[in-house]
Amino acid sequence: MQPVMTIDEVHAFLETDFPQIHTDGRVFTVTAISAGRITMQLDPNERHLRPGGTVSGPSLFALADVAAYVAVLAHIGPVALAVTTNLNINFLRMPKPAPLNCTCRLLKLGKRLAVIDAAIYQENPGELVAHATATYSIPPK
Questions:
Q1: Strand partners, 116
Q2: What pLDDT, on the 0 to 100 scale, is given for residue 126?
Q3: In angstroms, rounded to a whole number, what is the distance separating the alpha carbons of residues 60 and 91?
Q4: How far is the C-alpha of 7 from the C-alpha of 22, rounded, in Å?
Q5: Mean pLDDT of the residues in the chain
Q6: Sorting pLDDT into bands at 50, 70 and 90, what band is 118?
Q7: In 6-56, which ranges are continuous DSSP H helix?
Q8: 1-6 contacts: CB < 8 A, separation 24 or more?
Q9: CATH class of the domain whose range is 7-137
Q10: DSSP letters of 98-115?
Q11: 57: which of 93, 129, 132, 138 is 20 to 30 A away, CA to CA?
Q12: How far is the CA of 14 from the CAs of 2, 11, 28, 63, 77, in angstroms?
């Protein structure tokens, strides 16, 4: 599985076709794209925090979902109507109010479905904050 979009192309697509992810300013940034993988960073702001000084579960879910979407797009091209059909997330550790990284790995990329593994971490990739699996539906051409 080789990517067909660059980081700059993905960012341009998100700006034009999915601008609502930047409603409160740019907090999602694609940092790497390679064969079958992408990495995205969430730089949380006040909106993403919950009482207790941690990043909220919905923010972690959003990071996993947007990163999985980017993983699919980076490998099939700019298909706006690829949609989440399932996403399961496990929250493992309480994240600090600091940047989070999500590395997504395409487990399957078929004509109609893609299955993605998403690992969310902060400083140490081996110390997961959350883990998710996602399935995306790819519209027919």
A1: 106, 134
A2: 75
A3: 9
A4: 16
A5: 93
A6: very high
A7: 7-17
A8: 1/35, 1/36, 1/75, 1/106, 1/109, 2/35, 2/75, 3/33, 3/34, 3/35, 3/38, 3/74, 3/75, 4/74, 4/75, 4/76, 4/77, 5/33, 5/73, 5/74, 5/75, 5/77, 5/78, 6/33
A9: alpha beta
A10: S-EEEEEEEEEE-SSEEE
A11: 138
A12: 20, 5, 10, 14, 12
Tell me how far apart the alpha carbons of residues 10 and 120 are, in angstroms, rounded to a whole number.
20
Sequence-ordered list of residues with C-beta below 8 angstroms from that of 64, at least 6 positions apart, any chain: 87, 89, 102, 118, 120, 130, 132, 134
Tally of CB atoms within 10 A around 9: 17
Pair of tokens at residue 100: 């989070």
Task: Write b or e for each residue in 16-32: b if 16 or more Cβ atoms lie within 10 A of its Cβ, otherwise e.
Answer: eeeeeeeeeeebbebee
CA dihedral 109, 117, 120, 76 (to 10 degrees): 0
